[in-house]
Amino acid sequence: MLEVRNLRVQYGAAPALWEVSLTIADGQLVCVVGPNGAGKTTLVNAIAGLHRATSGRITMAGRDMTPLASHRYCGAGIAIVPEGRRLFTRMTVRENLEIGSCTPAARKDRERSLEYVCTLFPAVRDKLDAVAGSLSGGQQQMVAIGRALMARPRLLLLDEPSLGLSPLIVQTMFRAIREVNAAGTAVLLVEQNVGKALAIADHAYLLEEGRIVADDRPAVLFDNPHLRRAYLGVVAEP
Q: Cα(152)–Cα(162) distance, rounded to whole angstroms?
């Protein structure tokens, strides 16, 4: 469904991604892990159309996305939950969610999508008329994910959904991600919580200094000594 080939992204003269390639099949859950500054957010933003590619190609369902304007990506079935949530804090939760259903097709299913989000996150149902800025960090993350789902995407991009959340809310987030994926939505998960990301992914990529340095089934990457030492704090026994 999604194919990224030899993607390069620069900030001015500074390169951020070097020849990055990855694929996501229909209904697949893929994670990208790596250290701070590796280029994970740049990669997600490029796939969402928020950063222009210097070279390379992003293809969605056979359509070359790289020359398109950013707002066309949503209509192609791509929705993003950005790092830091970026809600409209002075608007109500309901208004924030409805903004997500911006395409004509999504608007037709707005009520059904809203019910789906409230079923996925029961805490959101009780806060629909509350100002988004009054919610806890975990509740705001639920709204951010819900807003993206209101677009009825084929591919959901998640950038650090567990960042700054309590362990209990992190469990809720990962449960919801699994449920969304099980319902048929493909997911690209960028996450520093390597253990949890690998536990739910079908395939995983390791990004370091703007390059993909490894990709495989999560169980295989989990046994990679470099990854275990660098990201899980596990030192192999002599």
A: 22
| Among candidate residues 215, 198, 100, the one with its CA nearest the CA of residue 146 | 100
The model's pLDDT over 139-156, given as tens digits with 9 standing for 90+, comes to 999 999 999 999 999 999
> What pLDDT is recorded for position 231?
66
Q: In what order do the strands lie in the sheet with 155-159?
A: 78-81, 155-159, 186-190, 29-33, 203-208, 211-216
Task: Summarize pLDDT for 1-27 with one digit per residue, the tens.
Answer: 999 999 999 998 899 999 999 999 999
Query: pTM of the full predicted structure?
Result: 0.93
Question: What's the rounded Cα separation, in Å, for the pair 94 and 97?
Answer: 5
Exposure of 146 by Cβ count < 10 A (0-12 exposed, 13-18 middle, 19+ buried)? buried
Taken in order of first residue, the domains within the chain and their CATH numbers are 1-77+176-238 (3.40.50.300), 84-152 (no CATH)
pLDDT at position 237 over 80: no
Q: How many residues belong to the chain? A: 238
Q: Using CA atoms, how far apart are residues 51 and 54, in angstroms rounded to an integer? A: 9
Distance from C-alpha of 196 to C-alpha of 137, rounded to nearest angstrom: 19
